[in-house]
Amino acid sequence: MSVVTPTYNEAANVPLFVAAIGKVLAGLTYEIIVVDDDSPDRTWEVAGKLAEVDGRVRVIRRFGESGLSSAVMAGLGSARGQVLVVMDADLQHDEAVLPQMIELVRTNRADVVVGTRASEGGSYGSWGTGRRLVSWVATLIARMLLRVPTTDPMSGFFAMSRASFDELAPRINPQGFKILLEFIGRRRPGLRVAEVGFTFRNRLHGETKLSPSVIRSYLLAVVELRVGRQVKGQFVLYSLVGLSGVAINLMVFSITDAIGLGAIDLGFSRPLRWSLLLGIQASILSNFVLNNYFTFWERRFHRQRLLVGLGQFEVISAFGVVVHVSIFQFLESTGWGVGLLGATTARLGHDAVGFMVALVSNYYLNVNYIWRRRPEQ
What does the alpha-carbon distance between residue 166 and residue 159 come to, in Å, rounded to a whole number? Predict the structure, then answer.
């Protein structure tokens, strides 16, 4: 069997991990493959020294490529075992359940066995309320949209048969954070998935890898698994940000319009309302922040570059504003929907239509000019 562990800055944990695996799999034939993304703390060097004295340990040091899922795929691709195990080296996955997971695959009772924190015998340990909520929402999204046959699709601890890996590997997208989601989300009919509960332990050394990029990558993976053949996942995320901008725009518009800030005459057939302009600016600010830290995380602007990015975003958004305002004013002048909806509701509708049309044109400009490449820091 082969145990694959992707690492980044886990120098303090790798020796403990190798010793723990050796203890629980004593008497069995196995190999441990450490796939390290050229860690600054020289995890690859620590693992290499272990490999010099233990022939069951192998090290893959990757240059110019990074990412958990691609690291796992690199390790699985070089594995020699008929049972393949993926687990983290940070000691948070309980190695004591490994024999049970391996036996289920070895005896052909399951094709994939998930180490789960959410089923009988499992626990999230000392996780706080916020982190539990994130996990619960992520699980709900995956089970609703992908109907995955597991209670813990975010788990990074699983075992699978060599035959299942060979069959599914050509279809796997090696990007993102949760490789298990790829395997069970792209599953063939009849893929047998079993679960073994385990208690998630606290990290003793190093820092957690959970970050906004992880959450974003997870959502992107779910979207691409669900609609990736029809719509680019990035556009779906951009549209979700745009929809949130619609909500903010309408909220600010409604509040400021109710206050009665008045209007300015710019030569249109009707005066331009301050509430419209404030709603547009609020949506521009919210869209920039969410796109920078959500849609285009890998190419995001940092620190002082944020103002540069915001300035560029404002300039490109100006085109969308022209489209937005023109459509709003046209609908206002025609009185579209007023007889059916009433003046106030119709005005909100005019604003929403203008915003949505501008969204499409701005997407092209933002992708190709603002976040075309990762900005220099």
Answer: 14
**Phi, psi at residue 11, to the nearest 5°?**
-60, -40
CA distances from 77 to 35, 70, 135, 173, 267 (A): 11, 10, 29, 14, 66
Please enumerate in sequence order all residues whose Cβ is within 8 A of that of 170, keeping only pairs 6 or more positions apart, or say none.
none
Burial of 4 (0-12, 13-18, 19+ CB in 10 A): buried
pLDDT tens for the 377 residues of the chain, in order = 999 999 999 999 999 999 999 999 998 999 999 999 999 999 999 999 999 999 999 999 999 777 888 899 999 999 999 999 999 999 999 999 999 999 999 999 999 999 998 888 888 877 778 777 877 887 788 877 777 888 888 888 999 999 999 999 988 877 666 788 888 887 777 899 999 999 988 776 656 555 556 667 777 777 777 765 555 667 778 888 888 988 998 898 888 878 876 666 555 555 567 787 888 889 889 999 999 888 887 788 888 888 989 999 989 888 888 888 888 888 888 888 887 788 888 888 888 888 788 877 888 888 888 887 544 44
CATH superfamily of 2-227: Spore Coat Polysaccharide Biosynthesis Protein SpsA; Chain A (3.90.550.10)
Backbone angles phi, psi at 301, to 5 degrees: -85, 145
Tell me if 86 sits within 8 A of 158, measured CB to CB.
Answer: yes
Three-state DSSP at 196 gives strand
Residue 278: Cβ within 10 Å count: 17
H/E stretch holding 210 = none
Question: Which two three-digit tokens encode residue 367?
Answer: 């992708």
Its pTM surpasses 0.85: no
Interhelix angle 43-53/14-24, nearest 10 degrees: 40
- Residue 364 burial class via C-beta count within 10 angstroms: exposed 0-12, middle 13-18, buried 19 and up: exposed
Within 8 A by CB and 6+ apart from 26, the residues are none
Contact 225, 183 (CB under 8 A): no
Residue-range domain boundaries for the chain: 2-227, 233-370
**Nearest-angstrom CA–CA distance, 100 and 313:** 54
How close are the terminal C-alpha atoms of the chain, in Å?
44
